[in-house]
């Protein structure tokens, strides 16, 4: 028969996954093997990340929430009334509630996420809780140039919201490129951004090597995901989680370390691993208040205010565009 349903299904399945397959293949072909951390976040990985945020060792989430809560009046004073909020990489839309609760008559909220799966449901819950707010989710890759809905008449500032130190998962070049894009998009308004700070390496080490092993499971899920989606044959117990602070580069690095000499097959191609060889899965850059502000200036912003917790673990920046 001309129509081969199996081939069709396979093609359908393959289409949205081709990015992962292509990038994994390219990443495994380099001398230092690597894969982008964006592939952590399938359904299982997103659940593991939510658990990370609750861990006693993982201070960033609760510290940022504390700053956003305690400094809300000052933040609201910078933003002013009738603001339009644009969130880059909106997940479950929880942190923005802290902001919305503090603002006077916010007009519009545009959460942008690459995955539309949970976005619409989360938007609907927000509409219920904020009936006067126009919630307009956008499914898009915010690291690419994009066009926002045009500004409403009489609206206040357009404010970007980028919490969670997601900027730290970009390379320095990517971080600068993103900030330049954001600055252009937010001209006349500003960016409210949370970034993790340089600190005692022991605290950083603990945050990425938690006692319950949730971060290890999060890291190893990448191999399970590849097995599920790309039919690779990684043996998950053939690799271990490693995370350490690279002090000269001011970043946590996460790797998956091969426990023995072994080979993995992807798309009929064989990749041999030596014992101890690693796949570099994530960088999480840490900033100082000054280094972040300098980067922001380079991207075209005017740093206007910064809030931190008493222990200076985390920082929230108000950058005028
Ligand atoms: C999402 N991102 C800011 C987290 C971080 O800390 O870099 C991801 C993460 N990786 C391990 N634990 C958490």
TrEMBL record:
The record's section on NCBIfam families has: egtD_ergothio
Q: What enzyme class is recorded for this protein?
A: transferase
The family database entries (Pfam families) matched by this protein are listed as: Methyltransf_33 (PF10017)
Superkingdom of the organism of origin: Bacteria
Underlying gene: egtD
| GO molecular function terms noted in the UniProt entry | L-histidine N(alpha)-methyltransferase activity
**Protein name, please?**
L-histidine N(Alpha)-methyltransferase
EC no. given is 2.1.1.44
Q: Matching InterPro entries, A to Z?
A: EgtD, EgtD_Methyltrsf_superfamily, MeTrfase_dom, MeTrfase_EgtD-like, SAM-dependent_MTases_sf
Question: Mind listing the UniProt keywords for this protein, alphabetically?
Answer: Methyltransferase, Transferase
- Residues covered by the Histidine-specific methyltransferase SAM-dependent domain: 21-320
Q: Tell me, which GO biological process terms does this entry list?
A: methylation
Under Gene3D superfamilies, the record lists: Vaccinia Virus protein VP39
Q: Does the keyword Methyltransferase apply?
A: yes
């Amino acid at each position: 028969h001309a129509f081969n349903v199996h081939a069709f299904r396979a093609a359908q399945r393959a289409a949205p996954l081709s990015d992962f397959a292509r990038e994994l293949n390219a990443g495994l072909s380099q001398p230092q093997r690597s894969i982008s951390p964006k592939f952590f976040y399938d359904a299982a990985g997103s659940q593991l990340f939510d658990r990370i945020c609750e861990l006693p060792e993982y201070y960033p989430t609760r510290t940022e929430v504390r700053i956003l809560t305690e400094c809300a009046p000052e933040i609201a004073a910078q933003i002013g009334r009738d603001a339009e909020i644009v969130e880059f990489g909106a997940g479950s839309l929880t942190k923005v509630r802290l902001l919305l609760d503090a603002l006077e008559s916010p007009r519009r909220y545009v959460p942008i996420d690459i995955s539309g799966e949970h976005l619409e449901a989360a938007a609907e819950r927000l509409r219920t809780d904020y009936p006067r707010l126009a919630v307009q989710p956008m499914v898009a890759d915010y690291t690419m140039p994009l066009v926002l809905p045009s500004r409403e008449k009489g609206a206040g500032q357009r404010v970007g919201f980028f919490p969670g130190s997601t900027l730290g998962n970009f390379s320095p070049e990517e971080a600068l490129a993103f900030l330049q894009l954001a600055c252009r998009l937010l001209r006349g308004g500003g960016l409210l951004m949370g970034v993790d700070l340089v600190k005692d390496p022991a605290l950083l080490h603990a945050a990425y090597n938690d006692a319950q092993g949730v971060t290890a499971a999060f890291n190893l899920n990448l191999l399970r995901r590849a097995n599920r989606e790309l039919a690779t044959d990684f043996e998950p117990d053939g690799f271990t989680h490693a995370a350490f602070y690279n002090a000269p580069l001011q970043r946590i690095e996460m790797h998956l370390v091969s426990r023995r000499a072994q080979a993995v097959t992807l798309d009929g191609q064989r990749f041999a691993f030596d014992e101890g060889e690693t796949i570099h899965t994530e960088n999480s850059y840490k900033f100082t208040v000054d280094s972040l502000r300098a980067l922001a200036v380079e991207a075209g912003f005017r740093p206007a205010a910064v809030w931190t917790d008493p222990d200076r673990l985390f920082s929230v920046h108000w950058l005028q565009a």
